[in-house]
Amino acid sequence: MTNIPHNPEKSQQNSAVAEINADAIRAEFESFSAETAQTAETEDDGFQNLFKIQTANQWIDEAKLRPAPKMLFGEFWYEGEVCVNFSDTNVGKSILGVQIADNIARGEAYGLLCCETKAQKVIYFDFELSDKQFEGRYSEKANGYFTNHYQFSENFYRAEINPDNFLPDAFETFENYLNFSIRHAVATTGAKVLVIDNLTYLRNETERAKDALPLMKELKALKNKFDLSILALAHTPKRDASKPITRNDLQGSKMLINFCDSSFAIGESSKDKSLRYLKQIKVRNSEFKYDSENVALCEISKPTNFLHFEFSDFAQEKEHLKDYSTKDREQQLANAKDLAAEGKSQAEISRILGVSRMTISRYLKVGDDEKYQ
To answer: Comparing 21 with 224, which gets the higher pLDDT?
Structure first.
């Protein structure tokens, strides 16, 4: 994560204005924090109960006054959900994320990208690409220049970190400043859909439960306060390409998966490197439709000026997993032994090679004159 430093000189030059601004920002930040906290139920004895308790029928009577959630990205993501899309690096998370956001901003419905809502405002928080890299993906290149740029909907907002900004005195940490800035962007634009690319930027470490939990609580609070739908993109640690994708492949999986409403993954086909597949990992508003027996196949395409996923067919996930030969496994065993000789721990070797610690332990027990079976 990039830390924005304090700027003492700038503060001294504009001390009076800075003081006023800091007070104003602090007041607004405290107001946001107070509103985020759930209103406690006050009992007859004055005790403020953490829980709101009603009969099951009362809950249903309240809920039925609101419409059923609509699809934002087929059965993968519905209105009002915090959804996590995860994959390995360079598989296409950002490409699909922009495509989904553009579709929602236009209110278009076709194929797997089915969006049942009307056109609405979307903010894409881009912590990955520079503006020039973004331009390159959505234009054509001719004679050293980008031309014929794709025209996004005016409902599509893109946000990136302003490198000229310094951490205001009103905030103790960059994370507080970042969270407040996201809230402020939502309030000023009126957007109801957010895409965050990616989760790692919001917290230094999402692989550890203690770091992932506050992050998911913040996203839930943001969703509830502004009635939002949030799609968060996330990385996977290095994984074994011969095994199906599961919830355990998500970085910080236990807390992130437990607290999100839905989740899907992008896999890379070992049969054809140009192919990708989408697989549902967690659902709440529908049944599992795209599981290991029916993944959605697609490929990344750019016929003119719009880099996107093109959906083609359905398949079983096992057809696109890597089939390790004896030679592959012997090479992996040799790699494990080399890394161990370099002083790497079994946990480190496991992360580097993308296999379990148990497998690494078994590899390291194999004698030099033995062949891995």
So the answer is: 224
- What pLDDT score does 198 carry? 85
Report CA-CA distances (Å) from 99 to 72, 73, 112, 153, 268: 12, 10, 12, 12, 18
pLDDT of res. 299:
92
Mapped to the 3 state alphabet, what secondary structure does 261-323 carry? Answer: CEEEEEEECCCCCCEEEEEEEECCCCCCCCCCCCEEEEEEECCCCCCEEEEEEEECHHHHCCC
Taken in order of first residue, the domains within the chain and their CATH numbers are 68-160+192-320 (3.40.50.300), 326-365 (no CATH)
- 365 band by pLDDT with thresholds 50, 70 and 90: confident
List Cβ neighbours of 270 (8 Å cut-off, separation of 6 or more). 241, 320, 321, 322, 323
> 4 and 166 in contact (C-beta within 8 Å)?
yes
Gap between the Cα atoms of 155 and 152, Å rounded: 8
Q: What is the pLDDT of residue 191?
A: 97
pLDDT tens, position by position, 53-107: 999 999 999 999 999 999 999 999 999 999 999 999 899 999 999 999 999 999 9
